[in-house]
Write a structure and sequence with these properties.
With 466 residues, the chain is an all-alpha fold. 81% of the residues lie in helices and 0% in strands. 60% of the residues are buried.
Length: 466
Amino acid sequence: MQTQRKNDFSKGSIPRNILSLAIPLTVAQLTVVLYNVVDRAFIGHIDTIGRDAFTGIGLVLPVTYIITAFANLCGTGGAPLCSIARGRGDDKRAERIMGVSFTFLLLLGLGCMAVFYLLHEPILYLVGGSPETVVHAKNYLLIYLAGTIPVMIGLGMNPFINSQGFGKTGMMTTLLGAVINLILDPILIFGFHMGVQGAALATVIAQICSAWWALAFLTGKRAILRLTRASMGLDGDILRRVCSLGLTGFTFSVTNSIVHALGSAQLQFYGSQMGGTATGDLYVAAMTAITSIREIVLQPAHGLTQGAQPVIGYNYGAGQYSRVRGCIKFVTVSVFLYCLPVWLLLLAIPGVFIRIFNDDPALLEVGVKTMRIYYAAYVMMGFQMIGQNTFVAMGRAKHAVFFSLLRKVILVVPLMLLLPRLWNLGVYGIFAAEPISDAVGGLAAYTTMMCTVWREMKQPDKQLSQ
């Protein structure tokens, strides 16, 4: 006879199970994004240097995406495996997965910090920097890197809190950091006249607080699965499985870094041909604003799909295949109902969103035009996330990684290189690469998921022991 398990996702309402995780997870993810975006908004409104400083922060984004990628490798790789192990009743195995993931995360954090401290200046010029913007990027990045390990702990260990069903606690991990960052930003940037260095310092302090909260919970008595010394260390078999499944989240962030870096470099090149370095910097600033907006508007859809991961994984592990289908149905309808009105809003009033970061007339003119191109097929991104996250939840690493690579590397990178040369599109061809990849990638990921996972889940449920 099996005792009643805490946070048993094989029972109760599917929408309630998903939303109990998705709502706090969405709030948590939004706060992570917001305290990064708030930095950019404050920096963009610094007197005299605002636009150059804002552009400089855009040069730092590829580095932050790489750091996030390694955190995702451990978090999004280990947490679904924990959910599957819990669904099978093997909590000891689940704790070992978490401990191995944490150990690997610390090693990766030290490596990232060392590499970026050594190579920061050539990297900033490589991704489209100019002397006017790199100075601000360096001032921010050299302080931000001091918080590499705390940010990786906050991002990489929070999925292990959510996978146990403690969505509100996971939300607090990032909410705590966001509140601290929001308080410190204006004080340090404007009150102490620290500029971009103040924004970076506020972020580091906030990240330390978030990391402390996550570790305090995972080592405390409330957690179902605890992070202990005995569970830590490296295990080759577990590490291979974590890295295999985590490649999806890793690839997503790495490809974001590659695309943003390539896009900025291309915009600097083609923009400079139109009117010198200043024009190149203007288009880089527009891309920074547009991608910052994207980070915000994607989070609710991310929250829904990632909130469903533990529920799908648990039910798959428990053999409750009809409930897996129910999860897919609910997430599909919910994500589409969110993405459609947001898409229309982005196309209708792009200027409102650009002004969040800077109200320079030249940036507004360029930003409005390029934003409508960039978001032309945004609604299709929802289907990409549904298909990809379903594969992750069920441990189908190869499918998940392939569709992440398809959209960003196989489609966007060649299009960014090719389209500017066709029909005199120039800088506008760079922005046009995104909607093409959204449409093709979204349809491919969702259709494949329906033709594989959905069909497989039509088999009879396994009988649960009482």
